[in-house]
Amino acid sequence: MKVVRSKVIYERMKNPKFLKLLYSQNIIKNLESKGNIEENTAPEIFVGSYGYPKVLVGPVLSINIDPIFSSYPNKWIGMNVNDIIKIRSNTLRGEFLSDVRNPNKNVQELQISALSSRPSLVFSDIIKINKLIKASEETAISGPSFKLSALKVKDKYTDYFFEKVYYDFDLNAKDAVLFLYSIGKSVYDIQKLLSIGALGVKSKRRLVPTRWSITAIDDIISKENIEKIKQNESIDKIRIFSLYSLSNKWIIIIFPGSWEYESIEIFYPGTTYNQSKDYAFIYSSYEDFNGRKDYAEMGGCYYAARLVVSEYLRKLNKQGKVLILREVYEDYKIPLGVWNVREHVNLALKQNYIELNNYNQVLEFIKNNTIVRIEEWIKNSYLLKKLLFNKSLLSYS
Predict the structure, then answer these.
(1) Measured over all CA atoms, what is the biggest interatomic distance in the chain, rounded to whole angstroms?
(2) Is 20 helix (H, G, I), strand (E, B) or coil?
(3) 287 and 195, same structural domain?
(4) Would strands 145-147 and 91-99 be described as parallel, antiparallel, or unpaired?
(5) Which tens digits make up the pLDDT trace of 188-220?
(6) Are 147 and 253 found together in one domain?
(7) Range(s) of the domain holding residue 157
(8) Are residues 268 and 362 both part of a single domain?
(9) I want to staple 302 with a disulfide (CB 3.0 to 4.6 A). Which of 236, 298, 341, 364 is the partner?
C-alpha cells in the first residue's frame, strides 16, 4: 500500500458533498400533521456556518430518549457505531435564520435554555421537516431537521454559575470560559454557551457556529493548561498509551523533555474520506514549546486531542513531548465528530501505560502495533525526526 502525505482528507471534511446523509423514519411520524412539538432538550443547540453572518440556529430536541444521554458524547463510550447513530437519529434539530450580530427573540430563548442546569421543556411550531440525518467529522451526528418560526422555553432551571457569567457583561469570553472550566463545568456546556452568544463583553457577543465554537473552547482551555505545565518538571520515562475503538486506533506517546505536541492521522483506503483502493492518506500538525501561530492543518481533531493530553499532564504536574498516532481503518464509514477523538484519547490516557527506556523501544512498539511501515511514521513526524536525529537529544536514548 502506498502512503501519500496529503491534506485532501481535511479538505473533504469541509466539503458538503462528502457528508454522509442517512434517511431516517424513526421520529417524524405524525409530526408534520401535528404542526408543533413539545419536547425536552438538554439543552443542545446548533448554530450553522453556511451563509455567515446569517446562519441557521435552533434547538436539538431529544425524542423518546433521555436528553442528557443523547447530548453528551462522554456518555457514548463503549457503544458501537450503530447504537450511536440510533441515539442521534432520535434527535430533531430546529432551524430558523438569524444574524450572528443581531439575535432575534428565538435566540434569546435559546440563551436562557443554555443556562439550564437540567433539561428544559421546549415548545416549537413545525413548518417543514427534512428527513435526513447528517454526519460530519467536526460535529456529532445530527438527526432530522425542521424549520420553525417561533419557539418557547417553558421550564427554566438556571445554573448559578452559568447565570453568573451570562449577566456579567464586562467579563470577556476567554475569562468566562476558563472560569467555568476551573470549577469543573463540562466542555460541552461551555461550548454551547459560547456558540449561542451567552459569553463575553456585551457589545462583542455574537453567535458562533457550532463547529467553530467546539475548536475555540478546546484551544482556549488547552493553551491555559499548557502555560501551566510548562512550569513543571519533565516526566522521567517514556510513557505509551494505546486504545482501539470504533475502527480507530490511538497511540499516545509522552517523551521526557519540555512541551511539544504533534498529532498524525492516517486514513486507510475505504474510509469515509478516502475512497481510493490503493492509497493511504497521512498528515500531521505540530507545535513547539512556543505554540502555533496559525490554525492547525488537521483542524478540530488536533485541538480536541491537545486539550485532553494537556489536562493529563497538568493533573500530573509534569510536562513532556506528546506524540499522538491515529489510524483510521476501512470500517470507519460514518464520520462521528471531533468528540470521537477527544473522548477516546481521554479514555486511552486512563488505561495502564507502558514505560520504555529508549527510542528504539518506541519504534519497535509502533512497528508492532500499526499497519504501515515505521519509516512512514518517521518521515511524516517532525517530532520523531527531531528526537531520532538531533545529536543533542540522542544522549537520552
Answers:
(1) 73
(2) strand
(3) no
(4) parallel
(5) 999 999 999 999 999 999 999 999 999 999 999
(6) no
(7) 2-208
(8) yes
(9) 298
